[in-house]
Every structure is written in C-alpha cells, then in structure tokens.
Write a structure and sequence with these properties.
Length: 189
C-alpha cells in the first residue's frame, strides 16, 4: 500500500527553484517517482509554481503526497512569481567584478543567478548589466543570498532577496521584468 507524505509547499518550491533534480527531491522527501509527480501536479494546481518551472520532470509510480501549506505561504508565492530571463544579462558583484554570472530569473523581490558562488545569508551589492542592445540600463541592488545550489553541469546557482534598491534602479528592474516577459511570450508562440 502506498504511503502518504506531508511536505511543506514553501520548502519543496525552494528546493525545485534551487535546482534539485528528481532523484535529489525523491531522496530528500523519501518519495517514489509517482509521489514526486503527484506533488508537482499539486504545486501547479495551487499555482505555487508555473508549468515551465517544472517542465521535463519524469512521469512516475508510487506514494500519495499531501502538500501542507497556509494561505500566507501561497499568497507570498503567487504575489511575486519569478520571470525567467532568456536574454543576455550579466550580473557581477560590485566588490569583485571578476565574479560574473548571468541572470536566470527575476521578480520585484529577488533575482536568481547562474555562475556566481555565494553563501546563504551573505549580503552582496550586485550590478545587473543587460547587453547594450537591450533597452534597459545597468542597475545596482543590495541583496541577501537565500539559497544556493548547483546545476548538473556544475554551474553555481543562487537566489538573492533584494534588500535595498533606489527608485531609479527599481524602474530599471521593472523594465527588465517587462522585457523578459515579452521575450518569453514571443518564444512560446
């Protein structure tokens, strides 16, 4: 008989966004493939994640999963959805410009970066520098690392929560989000 598991929605979402693959998630939550698939379907139904964030996960067999959450957690997850950035946007640490990466996703409260090593709780001053042909000026923000991980290929991944950003830099961030959304819609057509 399949077992029931209770998993906190926010923790599962953070693990997926941190880049944990199916086998890592199954091991962490002690799930069979079907249990993981069931959890992913529930995340979509709750609108805690977008389909493109979990695209390509394997179909499965096994356990029944119950996701435990609160309305506050769901509201927070829905209020600031991440916008994938498929445009050439470089990000670097203002204190160590040689530490460069690329913008992976963005929202009004944070940025996901590929290629920069960081530690959780570390505060960084980040320079977000879109290529010259993009209609967004480079901007600076101060952010705290909230999670880290690595891609299968070994690239560092990190998620940063924005702590400080000027009004002008906030406008550039908003323009970048609009541009990323527009680019994403054009690519899915």
């Amino acid at each position: 008989m399949p077992m029931q598991r209770v998993i906190l929605v926010g923790e599962l979402v953070n693990d997926i966004r941190a880049g944990l693959n199916d086998s890592e998630l199954m091991k962490k939550y002690n799930l069979a493939l079907e249990g993981l698939q069931d959890a992913l379907r529930q995340l979509l139904a709750l609108e805690a994640m977008r389909p493109e964030e979990i695209y390509g996960r394997l179909p499965a067999f096994g356990d029944e999963v119950i996701l435990a959450t609160s309305e506050a957690v769901l509201k927070n997850l829905r209020e600031c959805p991440r916008h994938p950035v498929e445009l050439p946007v470089t990000v670097y640490d203002a204190r160590s410009p040689e530490a460069r990466g690329s913008l992976r996703d963005v929202n009004l409260t944070g940025v996901g970066i590929k290629g920069i090593e960081a530690r959780v709780t570390e505060t960084r001053t980040l320079v977000v520098a879109p290529l010259d042909d993009l209609p967004v000026d480079p901007f600076i923000l101060e952010a705290e690392c909230r999670w880290t991980g690595r891609e299968r290929e070994g690239d560092y991944l990190a998620g940063f929560r924005i702590l400080k950003i000027s009004k002008e830099n906030q406008r550039q961030l908003e323009e970048l989000i609009k541009l990323a959304d527009s680019n994403s819609r054009h690519q899915t057509r």
